[in-house]
C-alpha cells in the first residue's frame, strides 16, 4: 500500500499544481523595445522574409532619437507609425485634402513627420468602424515645446502586435506642427475620454494604468532587447532595492549632485547641492538627451576634451567612465558616456554625446533610462526606480495592481538582496483583502475535491505504462510572494554605485517573440509545462 502511494504521489501533486495554477492568469502585456542601427538593422532588425519592421516591436530610431511603434487602426487595419510619448493623448494626422497632405503654412519638418507616420482620413473614411466623438477643433493640445495639434476626437480599434484593443480614444489632427503619437501618460483631468492605458485597464488587459520600462544598451548588439511591460514589472532587469516615490503632479527626482567619473573613480563634482536642498529633475524617456545646467555641461565637455561647436569627442570612453547622479533617498544612478555616445555620420572615430545644456530644466532623457529601470503607476500616483542591469536576456514579469494595490506592498523588492532571504509565497498575504482570501478558499476547496477524485481514479484504474506530464509553476505571478530575480549566467554591467563590468557583444539583437507570428495575443497563464517521465513497475 505504501509503495503504491509513493508511486502516484508525483502525478497527484502535479495535477494539483496544474489546477491551482490555471486559476491564475497574469494581466500583463509586453512590447519589445529595440534600437534601430544603420550599421546593424539590415540583418538584425528586419523580418526573416521581406523588408518590413517587426510589427510587435517598439523601434528606437537612431537618426531621429525617438521611439516608434506600428499601429493598425480600424476594420481596414490602416497601418500608421506613431511616436511613443509620455503624454496623455494619442493622435494621428489627417490629410488636408485629396490633393494636399499637410495643412497650409505647415513647415516641412512636421509635414515630413506626418508623411512618415501615415495619414488617417475621415472623409472619405479609412475605417468604417470609426466613430466621431466630437466637433471639429475639440481636440486641442499644446505641448511643452509649444508644438500643437487641433482636430476632433475619434474612437476605433487599435492593433499593436498581437494585441487588439477596441474603443481606443484618439485625436485626428487637421492642423498641427508636431509628430503623431501614442500617449503613455497619466490621465488628463481636463478630458472626458479615457487614455490609451485606461482603455487597456477597462478592457481587463491590465489591472491598473501602469508600465515598467527597460530601454537597454544603446549599442544593441547583445542577444537582449529593451521592453515596455504594461501592467507589470520585470524584476530580472534591475538590482534591488527598488525605491518608490509619490507624485501627484510631475514625475521627477530630487537631484543632490552630479559626479564626473573616470575609470571608476570620481575626479570632479561639478554639481553639489547644499545640505537640505535639491533640484528637481524630470524623467522623460521620450526626450532624446540628458539636460543639465550649463556650468556643469561646460565642465564635463572640458574634461572630455570635446571640440566645439558640436562638442564632439574623438575617443569613446570606457564603460566605467561617465556621470554619476545622486538623488535623495540614497538613490545613485551611474550613466556611462558610452550610453550617451552617438557616432558622427561619416566618421569612424568621432562621437557626440546626447547631453545638452539647459538652465531652465534638468531632464533625465533616454540615456538615463538606459541605466535605470523605471515603473510608472498612474492609478496610485507613484513611480518606482532602481539601477538597471545591462544586456539581460532573462525576463521575470510580476503582475501588479491586483485590487489596485501599490507595488510598495511587495516588501522584498525594497530589501537589499545581499541582506534578505527569499520570501515564502505566504509571507506577504497581508496585502490581499478578505474577498480574495475567501475566493481562494473556495477555489482551493474545489481543487482539493477534484484532486481526491483523481487520486481515487489513478489508484484503482491506473494505466499500466504511461509517461506523466508534470506542471511546474513559474515564479511569475501576482507579485505577492514573488521570488527574487534569477541569477544571470552571462556577462553583464551591474549599475550599482560605480562598479561596472565591461560586457562583450557577440550575439545579434533578437526578439523573444517570433517576428513572423500572427496569432492573436492570449493572456499568459501562470504555469510552465515540463515533461517528466515517471517509470512504471513491471509485475
TrEMBL record:
Question: Which Gene3D superfamilies does this one have?
Answer: Acid Proteases
Q: Return any one Pfam family short name.
A: Asp
Does the record carry Lipid metabolism as a key word? no
- Which terms under GO biological process does the entry name? fungal-type cell wall organization; proteolysis
Keywords annotated in UniProt: Aspartyl protease, Hydrolase, Protease, Signal, Zymogen
Q: Which family does it belong to?
A: Belongs to the peptidase A1 family.
- Name of the protein described by the UniProt record: Uncharacterized protein
Organism for this UniProt entry: Orbilia oligospora (Nematode-trapping fungus)
Amino acid at each position: 500500500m505504501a509503495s503504491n502511494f509513493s508511486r502516484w504521489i508525483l502525478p497527484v501533486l502535479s495535477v494539483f499544481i496544474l489546477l491551482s495554477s490555471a486559476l491564475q492568469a497574469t494581466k500583463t502585456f509586453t512590447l519589445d523595445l529595440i534600437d534601430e542601427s544603420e550599421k546593424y538593422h539590415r540583418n538584425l532588425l528586419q523580418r526573416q522574409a521581406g523588408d518590413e519592421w517587426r510589427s510587435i516591436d517598439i523601434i528606437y530610431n537612431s537618426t531621429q532619437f525617438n521611439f516608434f511603434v506600428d499601429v493598425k487602426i480600424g476594420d481596414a487595419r490602416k497601418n500608421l507609425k506613431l511616436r511613443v510619448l509620455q503624454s496623455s493623448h494619442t493622435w494621428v494626422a489627417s490629410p488636408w485634402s485629396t490633393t494636399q497632405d499637410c495643412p497650409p503654412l505647415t513647415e516641412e519638418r512636421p509635414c515630413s513627420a506626418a508623411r512618415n507616420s501615415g495619414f488617417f482620413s475621415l472623409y472619405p473614411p479609412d475605417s468604417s468602424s470609426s466613430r466621431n466623438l466630437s466637433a471639429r477643433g475639440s481636440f486641442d493640445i499644446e505641448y511643452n515645446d509649444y508644438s500643437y495639434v487641433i482636430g476632433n476626437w475619434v474612437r476605433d480599434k487599435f492593433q499593436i502586435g498581437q494585441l487588439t484593443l477596441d474603443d481606443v480614444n484618439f485625436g485626428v489632427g487637421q492642423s498641427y506642427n508636431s509628430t503623431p503619437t501614442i500617449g503613455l501618460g497619466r490621465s488628463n483631468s481636463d478630458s472626458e475620454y479615457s487614455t490609451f492605458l485606461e482603455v487597456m485597464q477597462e478592457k481587463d488587459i491590465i489591472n491598473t494604468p501602469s508600465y515598467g520600462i527597460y530601454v537597454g544598451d544603446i549599442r544593441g548588439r547583445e542577444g537582449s532587447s529593451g521592453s515596455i511591460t504594461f501592467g507589470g514589472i520585470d524584476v530580472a532587469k534591475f538590482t534591488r532595492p527598488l525605491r518608490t516615490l509619490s507624485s501627484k503632479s510631475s514625475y521627477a527626482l530630487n537631484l543632490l549632485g552630479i559626479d564626473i567619473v573616470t575609470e571608476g573613480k570620481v575626479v570632479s563634482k561639478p554639481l553639489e547641492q547644499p545640505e537640505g536642498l535639491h533640484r528637481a529633475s524630470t524623467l522623460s524617456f521620450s526626450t532624446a538627451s540628458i539636460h543639465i545646467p550649463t556650468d556643469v555641461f561646460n565642465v564635463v565637455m572640458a574634461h572630455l576634451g570635446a571640440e566645439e561647436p558640436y562638442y564632439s569627442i574623438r575617443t569613446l570612453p570606457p564603460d566605467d567612465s561617465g556621470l554619476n547622479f545622486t538623488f535623495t533617498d540614497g538613490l545613485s544612478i551611474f550613466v556611462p558616456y558610452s550610453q550617451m555616445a552617438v557616432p558622427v555620420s561619416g566618421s569612424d572615430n568621432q562621437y557626440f554625446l546626447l547631453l545638452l545644456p539647459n538652465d531652465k530644466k534638468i531632464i533625465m532623457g533616454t540615456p538615463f533610462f538606459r541605466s535605470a529601470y523605471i515603473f510608472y503607476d498612474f492609478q496610485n500616483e507613484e513611480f518606482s526606480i532602481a539601477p538597471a542591469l545591462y544586456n539581460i536576456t532573462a525576463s521575470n514579469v510580476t503582475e501588479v495592481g491586483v485590487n489596485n494595490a501599490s507595488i510598495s506592498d511587495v516588501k522584498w523588492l525594497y530589501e537589499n538582496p545581499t541582506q534578505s532571504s527569499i520570501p515564502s509565497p505566504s509571507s506577504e498575504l497581508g496585502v490581499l483583502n478578505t474577498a480574495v482570501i475567501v475566493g481562494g478558499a473556495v477555489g482551493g476547496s474545489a481543487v482539493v475535491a477534484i484532486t481526491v477524485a483523481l487520486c481515487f481514479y489513478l489508484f484503482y484504474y491506473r494505466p499500466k505504462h504511461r509517461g506523466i506530464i508534470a506542471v511546474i509553476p513559474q515564479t511569475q505571478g501576482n507579485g505577492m510572494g514573488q521570488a527574487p530575480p534569477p541569477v544571470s549566467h552571462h556577462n553583464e554591467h551591474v549599475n550599482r554605485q560605480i562598479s561596472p563590468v565591461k560586457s562583450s557583444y557577440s550575439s545579434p539583437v533578437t526578439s523573444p517573440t517570433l517576428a513572423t507570428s500572427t496569432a492573436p495575443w492570449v493572456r499568459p497563464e501562470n504555469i510552465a509545462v515540463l515533461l517528466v517521465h515517471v517509470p512504471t513497475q513491471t509485475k
